[in-house]
Amino acid sequence: MEALAVRRVGLTIDQFLSDGSRGGQVHLEVSEAIIALAGAAGRIAALVRKGPLAGALGSDTGQNNVDGDVQKKLDVTANELIFDALTEASVRYFASEEEEAILTLDKKGKLAVAVDPLDGSSNIDVNISIGTIFSIYRASDDGATASFFRPGREQVAAGYFVYGPHTALVLTTGTGTQLFVLDPAEQKFKLADAQLRIVPTTSEFAINASNYRHWLDPVRTFIDDCLGGAEGPRGRDFNMRWVASLVAETHRIFSRGGVFLYPADKRGRYANGRLRLIYEAAPIAFLVEQAGGAAIDGIDPILELVPSELHQRTPLIFGSADKVRRVQSYHTDPRFTRDASPLFNTRGLFSA
Ligand code: FDP
Asked: Cα(246) to centroid of ligand 1, in Å?
């Protein structure tokens, strides 16, 4: 199996998706949609590479998306490029962070595709990795909302493109998670790792710590225990990262493990965190689970949540399975919120 995986390194994405030796069959229309998205991503990557020479990509358009985020020029351009690409594939329904409602593309199309066209918009102008996230379902005959308002476990494919020092695609079609890299000479995505695995445990966490005062007890306690380091209840030192591009954080976790948290907090609009379930959390969770990691909202697996709104937010905690389970235990075990109790005046929940 491993030898086969090594032999396939270097295959183009088209070859990989039509390769009969894969464990699961990728249906033609799913392959076509992925290839269409890869084409759009290649065009977005070319713009990102040009930076300010491509125009003011990170400038505000003066418009807000439905969730209230200011739309940047590249948000809109990326959305248009992806929309155009998907009109060439068998896509019945298209949902996007940048579109208020679900759009119908081809009434006979077989798929429903949701995208965050440009993730990490605040990093466009600072030359830090940004990306595109996508999620693919079979279109439901019960209509547009039924096609997306379903558990993430029903996705048939998901992935993200990260536009960084190199452009990469991390993809799952339900049989493991694969890494492809855009070969700049040929402008083709080529397989670089046929079987990504997330290491089960590490000492690195990612969270926007400026929100510390807004967090609820379980998250605050977990982070306090990490910050306690070698002298604290965990008895070892931890490292922290925060890129503020979900795709970049995910990519780091694929390469060296760790845990990412964008939890619910006490700020008015953050009762369900910041990230959107359909086109951010669900596809990331599918990729992560397929690589041996875990993704939860604090308590429940992300892939079991059923959205009731298109742009619905969810708390998102994902990464190395042991770490995610530990964060989950802080949410479910009353001992781990005991700093709320006057009986306990010191923090300290774990000794390992
Ligand atoms: P952005 O709004 O810049 O597109 O998708 C939302 C997101 O970025 C994530 O990529 C990132 O992890 C998060 O927001 C950053 O949020 P904060 O600014 O609250 O840290």
From this structure: 7
Distance 245 CA to ligand 1 centre (A): 6
Our count of domains for the chain comes to 2
* CATH code, domain carrying 324: 3.40.190.80
Cα of 121 to ligand 1 centre, how many Å?
A: 7
Query: What range does the domain containing 303 cover?
Result: 204-336
Are 38 and 169 in contact, with CB atoms under 8 Å apart? yes
Strand partners, 189: 182
pLDDT at 67 > cutoff 90? no
Question: Is 81 in contact with 61 (CB distance < 8 Å)?
Answer: no
Pocket test for ligand 1, best of 215, 262, 312 (most atoms within 8 A of CB): 262
Q: How does pLDDT run across 194-217, given as a tens digit for each residue?
A: 999 999 989 999 999 999 999 999
Residue 149 · residue 263 · CB < 8 Å: no
Cα-to-chain-centroid distance, residue 130: 12
The one-letter amino acid code at 47 reads L
Q: What angle do CA 327, 68, 212 make, to 5 degrees?
A: 30
Residue 236 lies in a domain: yes
pLDDT tens per residue across span 108-123: 999 999 999 999 999 9
What's the pLDDT score for residue 66?
78
Taking the centre of ligand 1 as the mean of its atom positions, its distance from the CA of residue 135, in whole angstroms, is 18
User: What's the whole-model pTM score?
Assistant: 0.93
pLDDT, mean of residues 15-23: 76
Dihedral angle of Cα 52, 252, 235, 200, to the nearest 10 degrees: 170
Residue 308 included in any domain: yes
| 348 or 316, higher pLDDT | 316
Domain boundary at 131, 161, 193, which?
Answer: 193
User: Does 347 fall in a domain?
Assistant: no
Q: Ligand 1, closest atom to CA 69?
A: 2
Same domain, 218 and 255: yes
Residue 346 has a pLDDT of: 42
| Same-domain check for residues 217 and 187 | no
Confidence band, pLDDT 50/70/90 cuts, at residue 20: low
Q: Is residue 343 part of a domain?
A: no
Q: Which residues line ligand 1 (CB under 6 A)?
A: 69, 119-122, 208, 244-246, 274-275, 280
